[in-house]
Amino acid sequence: DRRADYVSAILENLVSWEIVESRLTKAVVRAVERDEDLRRRIQRKQHLSQANGQSRARPRTRQGRPTGWQGDQEVARSSPVEA
């Protein structure tokens, strides 16, 4: 049975494992850099919001609406007025 020999020859000669390794290494480096940049941006935003005295979540009233909810937003949710 020479099938194993054929498969081995194809894998050794058809695929350039040096290129595969090179591409994988570059992809890993890019992923690490991207994760580091994302982590820095998140930390910077958290630091700025804490410095400004803001929290990430807005306080809510008992009805579940944000405390700044008023004006057009409430009118849009009310029922139509009959004339």
TrEMBL record:
Residues 42-83 are annotated as: Disordered. It comes from the Eukaryota. This is Superoxide dismutase. It comes from Sorghum bicolor (Sorghum). The lineage of its organism: Eukaryota, Viridiplantae, Streptophyta, Embryophyta, Tracheophyta. The gene is SOD.
